[in-house]
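Our working data are protein records whose layout never changes between entries. Getting from the letters to the tokens is the skill we practise here. To make this concrete, we reproduce a full record directly below:
***
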Amino acid sequence: MTPRHFSQFEQAQKSYQTRAKDYDSSWHPQYTARFMELIDIQPGDRVLVLACGTGLEAVIACPLVGDNGLVTALDASAAMMDVCRKKQATDEILSRRLVLIQHDVTDLESCEHLEKGSYDVIICSNAFVLFDDPGRVVSQWAGYLRRGGRLIVDIPHENHPRQGLFMKKAIQQMGMTYPASRSWIESVDSFRGILEARQLHVFRVEALDKEPGKGHVFLGREEIGSMFDYITQDHLMQCLADEQFRSKARLLFEREWDSATEREGNGKVKVSYVLYVYVAEKV
């Protein structure tokens, strides 16, 4: 029996339910700190954080906007937002300057709490690759920026994570849909074209390692097992909980790995742990 296909909103709610409790003890907090250093948030700014998760970006932004500014944060996952609300309940600055809304970030039009053309900064980190139609999402988000406002988004390196690319091919061969959109990411310029086609001027692109010093690594076949386990325990791959599907996926995954090794000719595959951060201004 083929696993049920969930909508993006349903997938986010279901997938992040189990990640919420340990999200802040992962690599995300240190990455978010470096990501936020690229954003010049000023006192009085109105900031919109999309796919805010446990509020890592919002917690950094709130002290910067001052009492004349405001941070509004949206996420699909109730569990992730519950973690953020607990932070808000014990922090005076967050309680005054942060508004939390559980909502589908790909459908801002239906969120009555948001005002178009009113935000100085819109932020989305570690989520954009989940969206099926990047052009449509950018077009919608840009409508909520004021003229001169900035959109800051990160997307994976075209080779990140390599095991995810292998898994995508394996899943597709099984007649299933891979729950993260990567086909449009071919190079550092892939997202630039999408942004600039929506009247957003890209004035900075920064490559950030997920973890400092761990940009690109080369792995041999002995790593297949650990890489398969890593990608299939990911929150997006719950469709492989069934052992029958998992066994078939593993065989196809190994074939994709071996094919890549043959093409690259050195007995190893290159795995990247890099994200591109785009800073764009609405013109």
The domain at 8-157+181-211+272-282 is CATH 3.40.50.150 (Rossmann fold).
